[in-house]
Design a protein that fits this description.
65% helix, mainly alpha, two-stranded antiparallel ribbon, 378 residues, single chain
Length: 378
C-alpha cells in the first residue's frame, strides 16, 4: 500500500509539473506574439554553473543564506561570517589586516588599494606584488576540524587512562569512536601492515578521523567542502607518499630497479613504469579519488536544488510543481553522501596502509623466515 501511495503522489506531482510547464510555454508563445504585453524589466539571468562553483570554491567568508530585497537589491540581507584578510605588501611597507566584508558581499569593491579578481584572489589595484596570508573558510574549517579531533581524542584517552572503558563500560563518545578505532586496527592496520601495525596505527587513525570530520562538515550548509579542494587532497596525498617512501627498504627498491625473473628488454620498459607508480600514480590515486568523489556529491545535490530555481525562472508554478521531486532526490543523495563521507575516509586510509605494506613487503618474508627458524630450533 505504501509503495502504491508513493507512486500515486509522484505521478500526480509529475502530471502537475507537466501541466504547469505546458502553461508556461503557451504564455511564452503569447508573449512573443504580443511583445508590447510582455514588456517588463529584465531580471538577471540565473547561472546555475556559477552558483554551484561559488559554493564549491574556497572563499573569504562563510555564507549561509540570503534574503533578497527585490525592490532594492543593495538592501538584501546576507547571513555571512566574514573572515580576516591578512596581506603583506612590499610597496606599502608591511602587513595590513582587515575584514573581508570591506570587499562587499559580491567582492566587487576595492579597499586599501586591494581588490578580489575573478578567481577571488587578492590583488593590488596598481598590480604591485601582494603576499596573501588570509584565513579562508577552508583554512578556518581545517583548524576547527583539527581542534575537534584533538579535543575528542584526548578526552577519550583521558577516560581510558582513568579506567573508564577498561574496568567498566565505555561512556559518551567512547561508544561511537571505539568500534571505529577497532575496525581500523583490525581490518586496515593488522591486515595490511602485519607485525608493524602498531607503528603506523596512530597515523592511520589521524588520517581517517581528520578526513571524516572534514567530510561531515562539508555536508553542513554554509560550511566549506575542504576534502573537495585539490590543495587539501594534494597535501594529504604528499604526506602519505612521504610516509610510504620512508617505509621502503633495499628489497623494495631492488625489485623496482631490477625486477627478478624478467627478460632484460622487458625490464627496460618496466623500470620507469614501476618508478612512476611509486612516485606519481599511487599518490595521484589517493589525491584524485578523494577530491573527485567529494566534489561530485556536492555538485549533484546543488544541481537538484538549482532545478527548482531554473523551472521557477520559467514559471513560478513550474518551480513549485518540481520542488517535491527535487527535494526528494536531494534528500536521497544527501543520505548517500553521509555514507560516502565514511567510505572515502576508509578508502584513503586503507589504500595508504596497502601502499605502506607494499613498501616493506620483503620484510614480511624475512620476518616469517626468522620466526620459522626460531620455532624449528625450539
Amino acid at each position: 500500500m505504501a509503495a502504491k501511495r508513493i507512486k500515486y503522489i509522484l505521478g500526480l506531482t509529475l502530471s502537475l509539473f507537466l501541466v504547469l510547464s505546458y502553461t508556461s510555454s503557451k504564455a511564452q508563445e503569447h508573449a512573443i506574439e504580443n511583445p508590447t504585453e510582455a514588456h517588463e524589466p529584465k531580471k538577471e539571468k540565473l547561472d546555475p554553473a556559477k552558483i554551484i562553483m561559488d559554493h564549491i570554491k574556497d572563499a573569504h567568508e562563510f555564507h549561509f543564506f540570503t534574503i533578497e530585497n527585490e525592490e532594492n537589491p543593495h538592501e538584501s540581507f546576507h547571513a555571512t561570517i566574514p573572515l580576516p584578510i591578512i596581506v603583506y605588501s612590499p610597496s606599502k611597507g608591511g602587513f595590513s589586516a582587515f575584514s573581508s566584508s570591506r570587499f562587499g558581499h559580491n567582492g566587487d569593491e576595492e579597499y586599501d588599494g586591494l581588490k578580489l579578481n575573478e578567481n577571488k584572489e587578492i590583488v593590488a589595484v596598481d598590480n604591485s606584488v601582494v603576499y596573501d596570508f588570509s584565513l579562508t573558510k577552508n583554512v578556518v574549517q581545517m583548524l576547527i576540524a583539527l581542534t575537534i579531533l584533538v579535543l575528542l581524542m584526548t578526552g577519550i584517552a583521558r577516560k581510558y587512562k582513568n579506567g573508564i572503558g577498561v574496568t567498566s563500560a565505555p561512556k559518551g563518545w567512547q561508544n561511537a569512536v571505539e568500534p571505529i578505532i577497532t575496525f581500523v586496527r583490525d581490518d586496515v592496520a593488522k591486515v595490511n601492515l602485519g607485525h608493524k601495525w602498531q607503528k603506523y596505527l596512530p597515523y592511520l587513525l589521524t588520517v581517517f578521523f581528520f578526513i571524516l570530520i572534514n567530510n561531515i562538515f562539508g555536508l553542513i550548509p554554509g560550511f566549506a567542502n575542504v576534502t573537495g579542494n585539490t590543495a587539501f587532497t594534494l597535501v594529504m596525498g604528499l604526506i602519505s607518499a612521504i610516509v610510504i617512501l620512508a617505509s621502503t627498504n633495499g628489497h623494495f627498491w631492488g625489485h623496482i630497479f631490477w625486477p627478478p625473473g624478467i627478460p632484460f628488454l622487458i625490464k627496460i620498459i618496466l623500470i620507469p613504469v614501476e618508478l612512476a607508480g611509486v612516485l606519481i600514480i599511487k599518490p595521484a590515486a589517493l589525491i584524485i579519488r578523494l577530491f573527485a568523489n567529494m566534489v561530485a556529491g556536492h555538485i549533484i545535490i546543488l544541481s537538484f536544488i538549482s532545478l527548482i530555481f531554473i523551472f521557477g525562472a520559467m514559471n513560478k508554478g513550474a518551480g513549485w510543481g518540481f520542488s517535491p521531486i527535487s527535494i526528494l532526490f536531494t534528500v536521497f543523495i544527501y543520505f548517500i553522501e553521509i555514507l560516502v563521507a565514511f567510505i572515502q575516509a576508509f578508502i584513503f586510509t586503507n589504500l595508504t596502509a596497502v601502499f605502506i605494506g607494499q613498501a616493506f613487503e620483503g620484510e614480511h618474508e624475512h620476518h616469517h623466515e626468522g620466526e620459522d627458524a626460531h620455532h624449528a630450533k625450539a
